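Feature request disguised as a bug report, sorry. It would help if multi-protein outputs had a clear separator. Right now it looks like this:
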Amino acid sequence: MNLHSTIQSVMKKLTMMLLALLLIFSACTVQSAKEDNSKPNILWIIADDLGADLRCFGTPLVKTPNLDKLASEGILYSNLFTVTAVCSPSRSSLITGMYPTSIDCHQHRTRYKDSLPAGVLPITEYFRKAGYFISNGAVADKNRPGKQDYNFIVPEDMYDGTNWTQRKPGQPFFAQIQISGPHREFRRDPSNPVHADSIVLPPYYPDHPLARQDWALYLENIQLVDHQVGEILKRLDQDGLSDSTIVFFFGDQGRPHVRAKQFLYDGGIHTPLLIRIPFHQKPGSIDNRLISNVDIPVTSLRLANIELPDHLQGIDFLAEDAYERGAVFSMRDRRDETVDRIRSVRTHQYKYIRNFYPERPYTQFNAYKKHQYPVLTLMEVMYDKGELNSVQAKFMSPTRSSEELYDIVSDPFEINNLAENSDYREILRELRRRLDDWLSTYDLGTYPEDSLEISYWESFMKQNFAERMKSRGLDTTISNEDFLKYWTEYLIPTEKKEDK
């Protein structure tokens, strides 16, 4: 064999050896990736009081570039509904994977509640047993604990820290970051003001300058939330964690507006859900299935390959064989000092609401809402003067229907009650049955509630209301007309403020 042939033979063998080494290295890399993905980091970014009012959800007035980008990189879930329309029982559900009515955590808030029922643990315990670092922090300060507004005593060791940087090197994390907006009080976004004249309100609100200005400020606060989300995602990227972290973004409930927060219309229970899974998904996809926020903890545990305890009540909606919900269920009970009980079932087309106190008005006095919601006082004044139309006046009436039925598709604002329409008798009967089945299985709370609990919150909120009104230079005996004058002076339209 000549020298040239010998060199060719050696080169061929070296090439074959190199290819073999590359194949082995590639297999190891794939295996390593599989091992890494078996325990992905999971990040929940939770906004407080956020309706489905992002630009990527069809609200063109609001500027949400960071959330729109997150949606383009992940999955947009158009039909997430919360189990209730106020924070503490909703968050109780998120942290346990159970309906708040099934664990006696359905009132907002509770003073005498001790602990969760036997056998029920926060999902943080399951993550911790799987080797995860557990954190809960506030977006404004990564070293400050985030909101822990649960209706049970929180164990001291429930969280390991306030942000993922405190974990051991290489340790997977389950992190929550709490954003306080767009919860009231609203702050202005001077960089991108939303002008009141551009607002088109839902028909159940009067088209009044004060109502439009209040809504404009709400949208500006969503823009501030978007900016905070951008900072969080930037930090995740700077730490080299974007490719190994599944990001959830959602609200704990719907809008902080009249007829929304605390109530079971879509304005109170519909919130965005965006999920970015870096290692397997079709970016920019939209999923229109019905999702309940009781499903989020279950889905998160399964993404971490953690075996689910039998008592969890949500659905893993990302599973290949996921059961598709035919309906979502929501509830309302005492909110602060205001006693009420409402239940609802929602399908893709219909919403059925059952009011257990039809003899009471929707607008029973609530100190928090009276102090924070200018449109409530506006509507009270206009109702007394007969200036509301029939749609707007309905929510202000002294009583309500025991049952409400809405065709969500043809009536998205839920203003035409079909409960007494004979054409919908079979649909009404079917949704009654669905709700009754759910009540018998999951509505296990204590009724009536302990009178000591109610008395405590009546006293607490009375004092709280007096202190808050005093901080505004107002007295609790102020008339609605004078309070409305205050709001008109306080909510200076954005354009007028800029002109000064």
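(second protein starts here, but nothing in the output says so)
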Amino acid sequence: MRNYLALFHVVILPVIIYFIYKETIFYSFLSIALLFLSVFISFIEWLVLKKIRHHESFLRPFKDKFIILGLLLIFVIKKDFPSAIFTIFVLRDIIVGSIRIRATRDDIVIRGKLYGKLITFFQFFIVFGLLIKNFLINSQLTEWVALLNFNIIIFTIIALIIAIISIGHYSSSYTSKLRKRRKEGKLVRNEKMIILANRRSGSYNNPYRRHLLKLFIKRRKAKLYYLPNQKEMYSGISKVIKKFKHVIIAGGDGSFESALNCTAFKNKSLGFFPLGAGNSYYSYFYKGNRFEYLRSRFSFREIPLDTLEITLDKNRRETTFMSIGIDAEVVKEMKNIRIHSFKDYFMAATKVIFGPRKSYEITIIVDGNRHYWQNCFNLIISKVPFIGYGLRSVLGKVRPDDEYALGLGNVNTHSAFFNKGLRLWAMVLTQLGLNKAPLVPLRGKEFLISSKMEFPVQAGGDFLAYTKNLKVKVARKQQVLII
């Protein structure tokens, strides 16, 4: 039922537009009544569904903006509403969205939901005012139009003021939190560093990336060691790194993940230099002007970072990010490719998108709290990397060593036909830091996942296996180097 209601809010827009253009008393009244019905149903939905958020339709998050901006655009076309003000409303959403994306990438959480709700509230009054104005003109009750125009102007001014204030708030919050974040962690002044380079990584053959590596080595006065071309690339590494406290892994996400699972590094401070194709860790270790950080000698900060332990069919592995579902299917498609490139990721993603439908019936228990998802198409559990920033912006600031992992389920209440398109929409929402359907955020120390049918699992960019049962928990702390 709730899915049909969500669809109703979207479908009524062209109907209201049709009624507006009929320009009769009857149809003008119907346009007002239909919009009022939509608002009333939204209010009832909010009262009933606010405690079961994860059962929302993915259409619900943007239906209000869809209706408001759609109707305001019609009134702009009819020259009943200033195009400049409509443009400011649209630009405000674009600017705030851009700041949110930047903040997410820089691991900064900005709270400002009230602004969006207030702007939407007053914009609804503006639209209602314009619809009532149409009704009065069609009814030839023009003596009330002047008073109504005055109220529309007042609501428009208030909405504009809130829009401008919200832009200022987001900008100042982002700037101040960025300055504060740069002071986190223990400053590393005297580096004694070795760089372990994996020549099998996807970007090692890129001349510019090798040039950056040479500059990085020179600026840090570090020792370079090439890892052997063998399956166990860290075999015998204890002797190589024995005299060094700070170790930089120059490779891809898989190279760093392998280091996490090697006991030789557990008492070291690990850093990262991006030589892979994906490099999710890159955006975590270098926050801000990342290439500039590789070219110049900025000081590292040392922080403790929780690692996650995955138990899969009695096998254990440490990681900082993993997923099941569509993302894991993409990684599976690249399982037999020795050196990954962006082209490989793109081709694998295309194959999965145009392949069979992906839907999983999942039961997940988080610290004893049970969740059942009938149509889950993706689930991420993470502590950091780039993949974790969206989770942190949705769930709020989480310390890297607070012993909690973050989870983000993608749950669709509609047909599985929409799942793959919704995966892209979910990525947009996390980049904007918006906690909206189909997202279901989770936070806990232990995750127990089970399903009647097998689901794919990937960790750190490596495909692991298909399974029906999975356990993820916070395992230990690893010292890492970030800028």
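Even a blank line would do. Unrelated, but nice: The mean pLDDT is 86.
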